[in-house]
Design brief:
Helix content of chain B: 40-55%
Radius of gyration of chain B: 47 Å
Number of strands of chain A: 0
Oligomer: heterodimer
Radius of gyration of chain A: 16 Å
Order of helices and strands of chain A: HHHHHHHH
Largest interface: A-B, 41 and 36 residues
Largest sheet of chain A: none
Number of domains of chain A: 2
Structural class of chain B: mainly alpha
Shape of chain A: globular
Order of helices and strands of chain B: HHHEEHHHHHEEH
Strand content of chain A: under 5%
Number of helices of chain A: 8
Distance between the termini of chain B: 147 Å
Helix content of chain A: 55-70%
């Protein structure tokens, strides 16, 4: 491969593929396509970007937003993407939080808080990187993160009204 | 104390949330690796802009993947991408050359040739009658000439429209032939060789036939 070897690509896929899909799912309803195109775009790069993970998140974000914008029913699609009944998380042995309830609560957050929490918790990005992604200041991103966590905590205190259809 | 406790609870909640694992089965890993390998063997400028329709990894219809396996890579993409710019440049050059030629071309030297032609003053009702009565153009007065005649006049005739003998003009001959046929074209003897007159027009079919039949030795043997 021109700028990226198969080992690096495999490692990036293993470490960030699922989080990238979850990140893209905040905007569009076909996040797998967006993530796949981002990885292919990475392969086509003549040289490896300096911050590969940040570069991938930026490409995925742009692709997901473009994907949602090209749709005529953009608002409907964003809502549908957020409210899709497809599970976001794997069933966890950790019984502290129910995966479906957490996903349900996450869907109800504003997009800024949702994006920040996903990028921070599952993407492992720093607040500076998230600020660069979203075009906001670090303090704003940090405020979104805290507000989102508080909202999630409050929401998860009650039973989520929207139960997943996933068989357990 | 309360803030510390709240912060600790928040940390615990954050850790519990982070313990949730996003689904990993949504990306078709094998397909992605295949496409990545395919992209890697193409030059970078070949892959850019080349799109083909590929099935979605999860079967949600189709997607656009640059340089996908559904595309035809055999044809050089560089020639395809350069075709339109080259055509555009060529047409621009042609248009610019035509514009320059249009600007710098010399002005027309042809003087305006105004033909003053007296309007027909006689009643047109009598024209047809007189024309049919006397189809000989040479005998017709000049006022009965029409623009039809002018259209067939030569340049010399145009210049001498006032003085030219109508019987010698092309239009007069044409009109005469159209009205009475070729046989009405009376030959004019321009001289004689060995006693045979030289006529100023080609022979008609009938004259040719008569000439052939009258030759000695002609006819059925």
């Amino acid at each position: 491969m021109a700028g990226i070897g198969p080992e690096i690509l495999t490692r990036l896929l293993d470490e960030h593929g699922a989080a990238l899909v979850l990140y893209a799912q905040q905007w569009c309803d076909a996040p797998e396509d967006v993530v796949q195109e981002a990885f292919l775009a990475l392969v086509r790069q003549p040289a490896l970007p300096e911050n590969v993970v940040g570069w991938l998140y930026r490409v995925v974000r742009n692709g997901a937003i473009n994907s949602s914008r090209t749709s005529r029913r953009r608002v409907w699609r964003e809502t549908a993407a957020a409210n899709t009944s497809e599970p976001w998380f794997k069933n966890s042995l950790d019984d502290r939080l129910d995966a479906d309830e957490a996903a349900c609560a996450l869907r109800q957050l504003p997009i800024e808080e949702r994006e920040t929490i996903v990028a921070r918790l599952w993407g492992g990005l720093s607040f500076e990187e998230i600020a660069q992604l979203s075009g906001s200041s670090t303090s704003t991103v940090h405020r979104w993160y805290q507000a989102g966590l508080n909202s999630l905590r409050e929401r998860l205190g009650v039973v989520c009204m929207k139960k997943s259809n996933r068989p357990k | 104390m309360h803030e510390e406790k709240q912060s600790a609870e928040m940390k615990q909640f954050e850790a519990a949330l982070a313990a949730l694992t996003p689904r990993t089965d949504r990306l078709d890993r094998d397909r992605l690796m295949f496409l990545a390998g395919q992209q890697s063997v193409l030059p970078s400028h070949f892959g850019s802009g080349q799109q083909s329709v590929l099935p979605s990894p999860i079967g949600r219809g189709t997607q656009r993947v640059p340089g996908g396996e559904g595309g035809t890579i055999a044809r050089p993409i560089r020639s395809r991408t350069l075709a339109w710019p080259a055509a555009f440049a060529a047409m621009t050059v042609v248009a610019a050359a035509l514009l320059v030629m249009l600007v710098v071309r010399p002005g027309s030297k042809d003087a305006e040739n105004v033909v003053k032609y007296p309007a027909s003053q006689s009643a047109p009702a009598t024209d047809a009658k007189e024309t049919t009565a006397s189809n000989d153009y040479a005998e017709q007065p000049r006022k009965y000439r029409t623009y039809f005649d002018l259209a067939f006049l030569s340049g010399a005739d145009n210049r001498k429209i006032g003085e030219a003998d109508p019987s010698h003009s092309n239009a007069a001959l044409l009109r005469q032939i159209l009205a009475k046929g070729v046989d009405s074209w009376k030959p004019r003897e321009t001289g004689a060789i060995d006693g045979k007159p030289i006529i100023a027009r080609p022979l008609t079919n009938r004259e040719l036939m008569d000439q052939l039949l009258n030759q000695p030795g002609a006819g059925p043997s």
